[in-house]
Specification:
Two copies of one chain form a homodimer. With about 375 residues, chain A is of the alpha/beta class. Chain A has two domains: about 5-170, Rossmann fold (3-Layer(aba) Sandwich), CATH 3.40.50.1970; about 185-360, Dehydroquinate synthase-like, alpha domain, CATH 1.20.1090.10. In chain A, about 45% of the residues lie in helices and about 20% in strands. Chain A is built from 14 helices and eleven strands. In chain A, the strands form four sheets. Chain A has a four-stranded parallel β-sheet with strand order 4-3-5-6, with helices on both faces. The first copy, chain A, has a three-stranded mixed β-sheet with strand order 1-2-9, with helices on one face. Chain A is globular and about 60 Å long. The interface between A and B is large, with 39 and 39 residues. Chains A, B: Its EC number is 4.2.3.4. Chains A, B: Catalyzes the conversion of 3-deoxy-D-arabino-heptulosonate 7-phosphate (DAHP) to dehydroquinate (DHQ). Chains A, B: Belongs to the sugar phosphate cyclases superfamily. Dehydroquinate synthase family. Chains A, B: Pathway: Metabolic intermediate biosynthesis; chorismate biosynthesis; chorismate from D-erythrose 4-phosphate and phosphoenolpyruvate: step 2/7.
Chain lengths: ~375, ~375
């Protein structure tokens, strides 16, 4: 597999995508600058993969400590972030310490935010163990935690030193998590790569069967897109990076209303993308066949296509605190065409309500 | 008064030091980029100064909300930071919102950290109302909160858009707070300006009597030093900015052990600086007369010169989590000469124990 690079000047870093990279000393050690390493993982991943990683670091003479968090989006909060700070301070780790995130998007986001704020900033490394984290959350430096009133509302931009995406670990991934990752992969096709979308239509059965070569190609093509977007708009100051949020405004509203951890992020994004497609059709930008094709693809990926029972008022209230909104005005990512996303200001909520109603979300 | 500038390229910002600047529309409004402003203050300062500030912003047509925190270092924690996030989300403030800190160092540090992390970063403005905040904490972008195991252990570097240091508000400052600010002012003389130290010796009675011209000159000379140091080493990656920590390793140990809010930060720094001077004398760098002169100056400024009842073990344990330490090795700022500070690695704790014992801190 080629090594990808996220090109951000002095903050540039490599993404290694291959089998057996997660505990590879040659890939890890050059990115650890001090003598102290804190491993952050969860109760699901740690029993499977923490020991070999710890062994490589200890063999290099490093001081290694660990903190194991419960597994799930509902634990992506301040209280559990505090466990990381407690462990760092109890171990008396200093500003040259390195944090390593070994887990999915929740572990990556929390570890990155802990690294951004512990003693005003220490280094960190991403070892994503879910498909979703490998193709999306581990790349690009968005870190943070949830607030009861909104997802990812507290956080920082903090780039890792390196990303080690080990495709071998995907073999132990639960089916639901595999599907959730496929949602974000489909997203890249929808917003900027129609050819990739066709490839995904053709190869979805093989991806669902965890064909290693197909999964590796899907991860690499997704990371390539993510790296390009992040290099163009690291801090989401323009609309370039915001396009990665296709389906996320609707999706975050589902996650916030259902309670974090009930729906996987990728599942909520799947329904959210279909809602965005529906709304794009109402704007006359894509046709019914395109929406139907997306629905078929999401179903083939084992993803939900129906909204949960939420009132329209609650749904819209959660959408109103989205980070893309400016001065209280709703902004959504929609599809001008399949493979061509755009950020639009939405002042008239009537078509949004129509889309919600079409998914059974009504007053 | 001249306008000082903190020269940090695109992140440069002005410091206005004068009477009647805190609610001056011409100085404030150019630094507010969105339509939403959150005022953050405390129960002591808000009744005195919040209304005129709010009036100026509302007259400009801005949406203004406020959050009033309890007053004191013991509230500089996650729980109270959360109140700021709650207020921002309840008001549905977005990424173009501006936070304004109206208060002392605690309010400034917490507001800045909230700005650094709300939706991964929004703008903020510092309106410091204590002498200590005007001469030190409001300038330079160090923000954060305390952890029970260490002061300022969680935070971010986040520069404000502007600092409005209104010397008129110092008239309402309690005597203890005035003295606490004088401690940080004395620090600038000790670490880099012997002439300023002489000026302080000469004018301490006038400063204690709150002579407006003398206070304004002390604030301006201090901010000049702070701005120079920050411009040279914004992220404290070299030892330049670390020199501002003279007395702070000892001082933080006092604050952590006594419980936040018992000693004012400046009071702890005063004793800490005298301890650092004592240790510098043990190293043969300064003489007993210099230590005695510092003691006299601190007493003239109404500051403590004796340590509280803490065991040496507890004192050293708190010093061991200082952010300057590297890979577990203690690092202290000491005086090579009066007006010339240096960061030193301290591997032999014996002279540190001797200094602690000289202040009554023993096993």
């Amino acid at each position: 597999m080629p090594v990808l690079t996220v090109a951000l000047g002095q903050r540039s870093y490599p993404i290694h995508i291959d089998e057996q990279v997660f505990a590879n000393a040659d890939l890890l050690l050059p990115h650890i600058h001090g003598r102290q390493v804190m491993l952050v993982s969860n109760t699901t991943v740690a029993p499977l993969y923490l020991a070999p990683l710890r062994g490589v670091l200890e063999a290099a003479g490093l001081t290694v400590a660990e903190v194991i968090l419960p597994d799930g989006e509902q634990f992506k909060d301040w209280q559990h972030l505090q466990h990381i700070f407690d462990a760092l301070l109890q171990a008396r780790f200093g500003r040259k310490a390195t944090l390593i995130a070994l887990g999915g998007g929740v572990i990556g986001d929390m570890t990155g935010f802990a690294a951004a704020t512990y003693q005003r900033g220490v280094h960190f490394i991403q070892i994503p163990t879910t498909l979703l984290a490998q193709v999306d959350s581990s790349v690009g430096g968005k870190t943070g935690i949830n607030h009861t009133l909104g997802k990812n509302m507290i956080g920082a931009f903090m780039q890792p030193q390196v990303v080690l995406a080990d495709t071998a670990v995907l073999r132990t991934l639960p089916d639901r998590e595999l599907s959730a990752g496929l949602a974000e992969i489909i997203k890249y096709g929808l917003i900027r790569d129609p050819g990739f979308l066709h490839w995904l239509h053709d190869h979805m059965p093989g991806l669902m069967a965890r064909d290693p070569a197909l999964l590796a190609e899907a991860v690499a093509r997704s990371c390539h897109h993510k790296a390009e977007v992040v290099a163009a708009d690291e801090l989401e100051q323009h609309d370039v990076r915001a396009l990665l949020n296709l389906g996320h405004t609707f999706g975050h509203a589902i996650e916030t209303n259902m309670g974090y951890g009930q729906w996987l992020h990728g599942e909520a994004v799947a329904v959210g993308m279909l809602m965005a497609a529906d709304l794009s059709q109402r704007f006359g930008w894509i046709d019914a066949a395109a929406v139907a094709a997306l629905r078929t693809l999401l179903l083939a990926a084992g993803l939900p296509v129906d909204a949960p029972a939420i009132s329209a008022a609650d749904f819209l209230a959660a959408m109103a605190v989205d980070k893309k909104n400016v001065d209280g005005r709703l902004r959504l990512v929609l599809l001008r065409a399949v493979g061509d996303a755009v950020v639009v200001n939405v002042d008239d909520l009537a078509p949004v309500r129509d889309t919600l109603a079409a998914f059974g979300v009504s007053a």
